[in-house]
């Protein structure tokens, strides 16, 4: 039986290479895996030109990549981190393997894997899930004149996002962050992909950015809407385990891939 293909959807302010510590070892095991560059995240050189991309633009990109693989007859696993959970959930309409089979097509999305994500209900945005939590306010986010967010207080943000790392390492990561569009956090979910596609969750117990309570609420939401249990794996890490404990993320993704 052939291995499923894996699309990794980064979090906000993230470049695809931030996940090389996870993607490269999984690719070395024979999996077709790639990390996307969310359109809502800027480039290394600065924000993208033109109107700031939305969450819906991110979702359309994910859908296009998933459909391309599905049309090749591939089973597809979508893996998302943080903000990425919202466009990933939005992207799946008409692309589940079950939906495609009903249309006489091969391939399709077989699993949604959430790594400490923002997962809204229909009609709620990623920003609405956060709801102005006290830890979120410590990120020191500002919005520039073109609608792109950035972290004004690098040390403060690092203490939240990379709480497992020494201060100097966390701050070095934060300085690599591109800007991210403000509008993407306000776009409301219109399609609950988790309703019909089985879900897995990597629960980061020490996450200060998306706290345990927020993660539990998301898991409960998915289970209520889908009527299915979420396959939860818990690890003792901060919001970005790929920075300090990539092996735990690798093991989780491989377990998800082997379970479909």
TrEMBL record:
InterPro entries: AB_hydrolase_1, AB_hydrolase_fold, Sec-Metab_Biosynth_Hydrolase. Residues 6-251 form the AB hydrolase-1 domain. Keywords: Hydrolase. Pfam families: Abhydrolase_6. GO terms for molecular function: hydrolase activity. Transmembrane segments: none annotated. Gene3D superfamilies: alpha/beta hydrolase (3.40.50.1820). This is Alpha/beta-hydrolase. It comes from Melanomma pulvis-pyrius CBS 109.77.
């Amino acid at each position: 039986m052939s291995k499923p293909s894996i699309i990794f959807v980064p979090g906000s302010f993230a470049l695809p290479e931030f996940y090389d510590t996870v993607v490269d070892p999984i690719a070395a095991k024979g999996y077709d895996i790639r990390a996307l560059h969310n359109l809502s995240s800027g480039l290394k050189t600065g924000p993208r030109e033109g109107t700031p991309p939305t969450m819906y633009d991110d979702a359309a990109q994910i859908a296009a990549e998933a459909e391309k693989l599905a049309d090749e007859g591939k089973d597809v696993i979508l893996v998302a981190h943080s903000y990425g959970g919202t466009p990933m959930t939005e992207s799946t309409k008409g692309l589940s393997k079950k939906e495609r089979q009903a249309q006489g097509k091969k391939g399709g999305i077989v699993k949604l894997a959430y790594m400490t994500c923002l997962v809204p209900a229909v009609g709620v945005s990623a920003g609405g899930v956060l709801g102005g939590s006290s830890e979120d306010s410590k990120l020191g986010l500002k919005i520039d004149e073109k609608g792109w967010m950035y972290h004004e207080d690098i040390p403060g943000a690092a203490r939240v996002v990379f709480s497992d790392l020494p201060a100097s390492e966390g701050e070095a990561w934060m300085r690599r962050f591109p800007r991210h569009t403000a509008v993407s956090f306000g776009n409301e979910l219109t399609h609950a992909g988790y309703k019909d596609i089985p879900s897995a969750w990597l629960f980061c117990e020490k996450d200060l950015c998306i706290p345990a309570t927020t993660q539990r609420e998301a898991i409960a939401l998915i289970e209520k809407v889908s009527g299915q249990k979420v396959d939860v794996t818990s690890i003792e890490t901060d919001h970005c385990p790929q920075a300090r404990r990539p092996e735990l993320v690798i093991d989780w993704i491989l377990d998800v891939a082997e379970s479909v």
